Predict the structure of Hs1pro-1 C-terminal domain-containing protein.
Amino acid sequence: MATPKLSPVSPVRPEDKQRASSSSSSGAAAAPLRGQDDTAVEEYEQYLRLPELARLWKDRCCPEWADEGLVKPALQALEITFRFISVALSDPRGYASRRELARRLEALAAREVELVAALCEGEQCPPLAELSASKGVLPRERSASERRRERSASEVWKIPGSAAAVVCQVSEASLLPRLAAWDKSETVAARIKYAIESQMQGCVFTLGLGEPNLAGKPVLEYDRVVRPHELHALKAKIAPEPKTGYRNKENEALFTIHQILESWLCAASQLLTRLNNRIEARNWEAAASDCWILERVWKLLADVEDLHLLMDPDDFLRLKSQLAIRAAPGSDASSCFRSRALLHVANATRDLKKRVPCVLGVEVDPNGGPRVQEAAMRLFHSRRRGEGEEAGKVELLQAFQAVEAAVRRFFFAYRQLVAAVMGTAESSTNRALFSPAEEMDPLAQMFLEPPYFPSLDAAKTFLADYWVRRMPGDGDSASSRRS
């Protein structure tokens, strides 16, 4: 049956064309986000030891593993989270929010595991450990040399009627097995292990962090990929204050939060590269999957930033003064835009709007006509929108707008976070209303710019108008409604 035409019921009026063209031009002309001065950026990177951390992200251990650059920083962010759990639970201050921080970090680790599993689904050629010659089943009797070679392999369950046991090789360098052996963190570590077991069900391998591995799957060479010893060597250097000799414990918390953030931003940058490649290859369903993962990464970044709320106010503000963390004059962006990676990922995410014509199979009208909008309306209303060459297109366009919502939510939440952690003097929410566009700070620019996808927005507006006009008061017969 032919698709009903939208134009007789909901015509595109001349003023609507002008509005759509102006929206498109304003969306296309939105200036990229800009950061603070280079000195502040370099100080931020040196404080976090980002050059050294970036070398760990970029070092390749397995050339045939295509997505190593994407999965490795995500796994390293997870490992840094384990370190943060250790730091939080060993904090000697009586006023520290240990219990709530441990809960937040456990939840954060579970979400990170979920994202790692999503990134690893369908992975080809990751480095996997050879447990034994018997494909994951170790004999009961082993020589001394075999025991030394397999010292990181732990028995999981016995095969009925056999003297053998299925094993999961456990990382020697990761902090999670050590957290499981510490009475303060054993419960948290156990729940994280079960989260790994659950989330990695859809993958052909598991991480090898002490999870049960009841399926007896191959195990990732975690220590070779993540390099935990080198990663944990990049700790915060807590120097005592010159006059008092006081060592601020929040220094390590702030340092670790931002290392987790930067690691996930590195993964997001690689994910955007893979997403754009899949769009160019017209693999719409795979691109949509990547886009939904990107949305979840932005939500995870907001969760990481929220960890600042658990920092002690007096110690944090003391550290803030020591590190000279403050907004630039006339700006409420604070240290948010000292991160080059955050600027890059935010701008690359906003640039997804340039991919909409490619997805819809049209070119932008040089005269500003609603060509892209009309193509979107036809796709949204088509009865064959999930079939053939159209499969995955609607889901991808929906994911584009979901990512936009996640980006805006992140920056709005960041502004509120700055006010809650540093005070409202650092977050002047109404300043942007009285400033010219060229003088706005990046955070205000985020809120005042038009939608990233004006054509999709307009298409849904007209489609809604079509159904509003069609449904109520339509007394025609069913045959006329089908025409």
User: Anything to note?
Assistant: The chain has 20 helices and five strands. The chain has two domains: 1-49+249-471, 61-233. The beta strands are 128-129, 137-138, 153-158, 165-169, 219-220.
